[in-house]
């Protein structure tokens, strides 16, 4: 559990919003988020930076995020006038959505910060329809031994300054273990220090 001092309450949310607006992240959002359709659950909605990328085929957006400060930065509606409802709670807790009720789950740069990622992924699996899609862009454990070693070394200190963010999570394994199969997966570095830019972008479906 990360302690909530003035840094976490006031500075970190603004920093997250600013950093997550970077050009590279925006390019990746634009390449994946428009695939969403129907009723969408966005896990770790943050300040709502994916909302402009939902198209006309999205009916409703449900967001979940425990941060009240980020919640206050979210626009009132999604781009396409889809209704927007936000649950201010951790994704590991039972979501107020019925089983198999969601067409698309979206998660971008969030799995790294969730204290119990397996539990949150099980909630996503529970609410996603059998023919639903799970779209994700996450940074995580590199396939390069050298970078991996640095990620393991730096994570204990990094998570203290970066809102609980882990550098070394194996995103594809976590998703598969929660009951999904990958239908698309690309891994690559984006611009920036290698320990924090190894990216997993993909689509998964209930197995
Ligand atoms: C780096 S930000 C990314 C925000 C947003 N997804 C984006 O792409 O701009 C990580 C987000 O994960 C959220 N988060 C942290 N713990 C969480 C949890 N247990 N459940 C859901 N979201 C969580 C944070 O509040 C924050 O909004």
CATH architecture: 3-Layer(aba) Sandwich
Largest sheet report: 7 strands, mixed
CATH topology: Rossmann fold
How helix-rich are the residues, as a percent range? 25-40%
Query: Class in CATH?
Result: Alpha Beta
CATH superfamily: Vaccinia Virus protein VP39
Strand order of the largest sheet: 3-2-1-4-5-7-6
Integer average pLDDT: 95
Which spans of ≥5 residues are poorly predicted at pLDDT below 50? none
Strand share of the residues?
25-35%
Ligands in the structure? Answer: S-adenosylmethionine
In short:
Helix content is 32%, strand content 27%.
Could you walk me through the main structural features you see in this protein, from its secondary elements to its overall organization?
With 207 residues, this protein is of the alpha/beta class. The protein has a single domain (6-206), classed as 3-Layer(aba) Sandwich (Rossmann fold). Helices cover 32% and strands 27% of the residues. The protein contains seven helices and seven strands; from the N terminus they run ααββαββαβααβαβ. It has helices spanning 6-19, 23-32, 68-71, 117-127, 145-161, 171-177, 194-197, and strands at 38-43, 58-64, 83-87, 102-108, 128-139, 180-189, 198-206. The protein has a seven-stranded mixed beta sheet. The longest helix is centred in the last third of the chain and has 17 residues, at 145-161. The protein is globular, with a radius of gyration of 16 Å. The model has no long low-confidence stretch (mean pLDDT 95). The structure holds S-adenosylmethionine. Residues 16, 20, 43-44, 46, 49, 64-67, 70, 90-92, 108-110, 113-115, 120 line the site of S-adenosylmethionine (SAM).
């Amino acid at each position: 559990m990360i302690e909530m001092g003035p840094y976490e309450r006031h500075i970190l949310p603004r920093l997250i919003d600013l950093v997550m607006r970077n050009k590279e992240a925006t390019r990746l959002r634009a390449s994946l988020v428009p695939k969403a359709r129907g009723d969408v659950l966005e896990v770790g909605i943050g300040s709502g930076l994916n909302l402009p990328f939902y198209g006309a085929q999205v009916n409703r957006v449900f967001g979940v995020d425990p941060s009240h400060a980020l919640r206050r930065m979210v626009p009132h509606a999604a781009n396409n006038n889809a209704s927007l409802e936000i649950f201010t709670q951790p994704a590991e807790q039972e979501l107020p959505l019925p089983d198999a009720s969601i067409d698309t789950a979206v998660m971008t740069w969030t799995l790294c910060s969730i204290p119990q990622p397996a539990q949150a992924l099980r909630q996503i699996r529970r609410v996603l329809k059998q023919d639903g899609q799970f779209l994700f862009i996450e940074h995580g454990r590199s396939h390069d031994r050298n970078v991996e070693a640095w990620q393991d070394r730096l994570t204990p200190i990094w998570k203290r300054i970066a809102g609980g963010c882990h550098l070394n999570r194996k995103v594809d394994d976590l998703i598969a273990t929660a009951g999904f199969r990958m239908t698309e997966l690309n891994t690559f570095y984006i611009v920036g220090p290698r320990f924090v830019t190894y990216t997993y972008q993909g689509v998964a479906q209930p197995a």
